[in-house]
Design a protein that fits this description.
- The N and C termini lie far apart (31 Å).
- The chain has helices spanning 18-25, 29-37, 56-71, and strands spanning 3-5, 15-16, 43-46, 51-55.
- The protein is elongated and about 40 Å long.
- A hairpin with a 4-residue loop joins strand 3 (43-46) and strand 4.
- Helix content is 42%, strand content 18%.
- By secondary structure, the chain is an alpha+beta fold.
């Protein structure tokens, strides 16, 4: 899992929450947590609780990697 600790002064500075990322990806928040844990999408842990935050460019990279995977036949589509 790719995680970087950030200070609380950087919270909310253009970062997306799990719920926001899940909405963008049309996925369940638990799936976003799992993808972050597996290192498929980079996240930052912020605050005392260690909440996950995502940069929009990392979400875009995740989407692009998924699109490339599907177009290369690496996806798990039922064909």
């Amino acid at each position: 899992m790719v995680v970087e600790q950030r200070g609380s002064d950087e919270i909310g500075s253009g970062m997306l929450t799990i719920k926001e990322v899940a909405g963008l990806l049309h996925a369940h928040p638990s799936s976003v947590r799992r993808w972050a844990k597996e290192g498929l999408i980079k996240c930052y842990r912020v605050g005392m609780r260690g909440d996950r935050r995502f940069k929009s460019e990392h979400v875009d990279e995740f989407i692009q990697a998924g699109a490339e995977s599907v177009s290369n036949g690496d996806g798990d589509g039922n064909q």
